[in-house]
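Board notes (copied after class):
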Amino acid sequence: MEQRFVFGNKAKTFAGILAVAGLVLFLLGAFTTEHTAQRAWTSILFNNLFFTWIALIGGFFVAAFGLGYSGWHTLIKRIPEAMGHFIVPGIIMILVIFVLGGKHIYEWTDHHVIEQDGLLQVKQWWLNSKMFILFTLGWLAAMGGMFYLLRRNSVKLDETGDYRIFNKSLVISAVFCFFFAVMNSVSTWHWVMSTEPHWYSTLYGWYLFASSLVSGIAVMTLILIFLKRQGYLPRVNMNHFHDLGKFLFAFSVFWTYLWFSQHMLIWYANIPEETVHFRYLYDNHGFLFFFSLILNFLIPLIVLMSRDAKRNLNTLMFVSCVILLGHWIDFFLMIRPGADKFLSHHKHEHIVQSIGITEIGAMLMYAGIFIFVTLWALTKANIVPLNHPFERESVEHHI
């Protein structure tokens, strides 16, 4: 059944107002708060990473579920495909942030600091500008290129009905998942954990992956609810929403398992090189640290426990918004400790910066841009894949 999404003026206006309002708030905060440059670049970085990883999860969702011969998601497959269109601009923006503002975020870019720090000297083979740029370019080529091939084959299958294209996509999906598994962890070390180069965690890659995975599923759920209420995707039923609700519930618990494992093991070992991160969070962002646990675990656990809750659109929309807020705070807490310590070292005073209009403005700006890119991408192909071998399975999906 052919049906194209129409990117109406209301949706465009909403995305535009969100982006412009965010930009105004961001500039207002950037020029009226202390430590303007450092706070501005830090806010842009963590918001860009948050939305870029959500886009990467869109690509991962398409590849992983396709590789697993999943049928239920076929009717909603175009939503994660549309989200994946933000991968390329998001990763390019990481390079722009590093080139223009990296000196305000990453301590290891300061040669004077390295000269006085033996640990950074040991890590310099990895933590250097050339390696950062080369790795990010490789990540851009690998993820952007393979997502492009998956999307191209998906659209080509609509046009030709040639199932050989579907088989080729399975091979691309396998390669995508392999590179994603390796490069996701490595990018976590480079882009995020290196903001605090004296601290490390062997669970960090998994932890960030879990955070972005549940955030990506929350975005998919919100977009699907929006489309359904606009009259699109008539064959999508409550069973599809139920599955998304189960994923929201399950991966919220999975994220909490990693949150607890990382926190408990570091607390129990009580090694100074490891506890420094959590000690800083306790002392300076204790409320946000535990509030994010409530948003990301307790609320999804309690609200989504029943079957009926997973089949209620208002409930799913509420929980998805709560999860996105909670994991946005989580990304903030990943970046802020290192940024504050770096600034404190330069200013020779204890500096703590919490969430303010600079961070909120950057979030609204990126949200507007992400919504625009995603909805624009939805218009570029039929909203339901045509000639897909598992289309009937998805239509008749029942749990």
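Comment from the instructor: DSSP finds 15 helices and no strands in the chain. The two ends are 24 Å apart (CA to CA).
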